[in-house]
Amino acid sequence: MALDEDWITEICAEGGSAFSLKGRGKVFDKQSPFQKIEVFETDSYGKLMMIDGCTMVSSYDNFLYHEMMSHPALYSHRAPRRVAIIGGGDCGTLHDVLKHPEVEKVTQIDIDEQVTSAAKLHFPELCESNADPRADLLFIDGIQWMKDAAPASLDVIIVDSTDPIGPGEILFSPQFYGACHRALAGGGLIVQQSESPLIHQNILEHMYRNLLGASFQDIRTLFFPQPIYPTGWWTATIGARDTQLQSHRIDEVAKRGFETRYYNEEIHRAAFAQPEFFRRLRETWLTAD
Ligand code: SAM
User: Fold this and answer.
1) Which of the residues 90, 155, 160, 163 is marked catalytic?
2) Which atom of ligand 1 is nearest to the CA of 119?
3) 66 with 261: CB under 8 angstroms?
4) Among this protein's residues, is 160 annotated catalytic?
5) Is 88 in the pocket of ligand 1 (CB under 6 A)?
6) 197 lines ligand 1 (CB under 6 A)
7) Computed over its alpha carbons, how large is the radius of gyration of the chain?
8) What is the pLDDT of residues 124-182, one digit of tens each?
9) Residue 52: CB within 6 Å of ligand 1?
10) pTM of the full structure
11) Alpha-helix residue ranges (DSSP H) falling in the chain
């Protein structure tokens, strides 16, 4: 069956694959100084945001990504009071981070205000916490903000960025990880969306090498399903600044005072389980010269 123009398609050249959704028309279209932002109405996934032709967030499955980019790292940290989100312009990760009462301050730094404008219009459910007094939303380049951040001023850094191309490329660089390591206090963690474990192993290897090069002591990858992203299987990689990564507060997960749709204690443990092919790859990345 040939797909007619109603279908919205992301071509994933590196995976030799494509992902399509049946659409009902485009409801937002903006070329910003940094990227092209489009929002579509779809038949079965609600609204779909695309940036530079790549699927970013849908109303239907965003909870998987936003919960896994926030809760595992926050429950792994002893006391996550000061959080920075680099990227995250759709505000979904911010919304989940602010569910944690122990979080005292969250600064979200996205390079492009147009992404948040589109989210406010078409994903209002993700922007519900934007006015929380603990939240600060800034629109500048994440690397500049991180370079200017005071040493040891953060507990958790969440890098909810686009892929390592265009404005997002710098967020996978040694300089950025070096700036993050300096800005994190003792026991600090960085967590970053790290693409598909099947077709983006080169990006993951790059991240491991650069995080090790920036003196992060322990690096783990967690796995979760994400239907709208290439291969439908995605990862987030966590780097521990100066300790072995441990789930310090996992016994608090079952008592959490807020709703989740995917994340719970079992999922937390399962997400860190390493598939055999990945366990072998990770070993080579951690022991490579
Ligand atoms: N979940 C998505 C993914 O995995 O592809 C990411 C969603 S979020 C919308 C990505 C955000 O990263 C965008 O809003 C984009 O503007 C932001 N971004 C890209 N490069 C950036 C940079 N150098 N500094 C700050 N934000 C950046």
Assistant:
1) 160
2) 9
3) no
4) yes
5) yes
6) no
7) 18
8) 999 999 999 999 999 999 999 999 999 999 999 999 999 998 889 999 999 999 999 99
9) no
10) 0.97
11) 62-76, 92-97, 113-122, 142-148, 174-183, 201-213, 265-271, 276-287
